[in-house]
């Protein structure tokens, strides 16, 4: 049967084009994909990580809980310059000791500086325990009070402390066993004669016995009191058994056994040194003779060079016929000569160490 045409002789097309349908499908799919990508971008923004290798998407459902390491940050290079070393100052050498014995009265009356200048000295020495046994200060020791050895001026100790607080170097001389007071008050502490009396030396002065423990303890206590008063140095004089006078009159026995002299005197030095250890700024010095140093010992006194070198910070020495160089060589050790203070009858040279201990009025 023939199809009827329109008035112009051809019929109209009423069907759908296949090509247009496919294109619409593709457009729709792309639109959906675009929407999904945008949605994922906004929803998973917190799971984007950036590193030196670029951006990474870390999703929880793909095991994306792993946190990417923080990018390494290089530390800034710091250039340091070594500090210029501070030069060590050269220590100024101490002037040599130039000592003069001053009267005790100078501790209080203000004359000490002038007297020291007149003597050309830089070190003041005071007889704080004189050969007669008297003390140049007020002591709290019962034996000193019993023997009448202590000073009585209530203002004296304060004056001594004030003086010692100054710039002048001060030395307290202690006549150890040569003591005319204590053996008179307590005869049992004295060196005895064969007849039982107190022995006296060439100057008619008594001596305490170095063998007596009580006598040694008394001297140690005196040294401690002087350290507390502020003296820079304590000089032990007559610190062994007597060597002058009629020694043959001394009673031999337990209190005068020459075989024990050196042991007893060395123990005494140790005892004083130990007691003064609580005062580290106080030097301990001991007086001796040049012959003791070069020979090594004195069998009569009990002193030995070894004990002096071990326990004394400084050694004040009556050189006699011995030279300072020989005494220092005998003493041995580094700085031996600087450890020695030669005792002279007068002032020595300007650049030399010396001490003038001529007796002055107390």
From TrEMBL:
Organism's domain of life?
Answer: Bacteria
Keywords attached to this Swiss-Prot or TrEMBL record, sorted alphabetically, are:
Membrane, Transmembrane, Transmembrane helix
Where does the chain cross the membrane? 21-43
Instruction: Please indicate if the UniProt record lists Protein biosynthesis as a keyword.
Output: no
Q: Which positions fall inside the DUF4015 domain? A: 117-315
Keyword Transmembrane in the entry? The reply is: yes
Q: What is this protein called?
A: DUF4015 domain-containing protein
Give the organism the record lists: Pseudoflavonifractor hominis
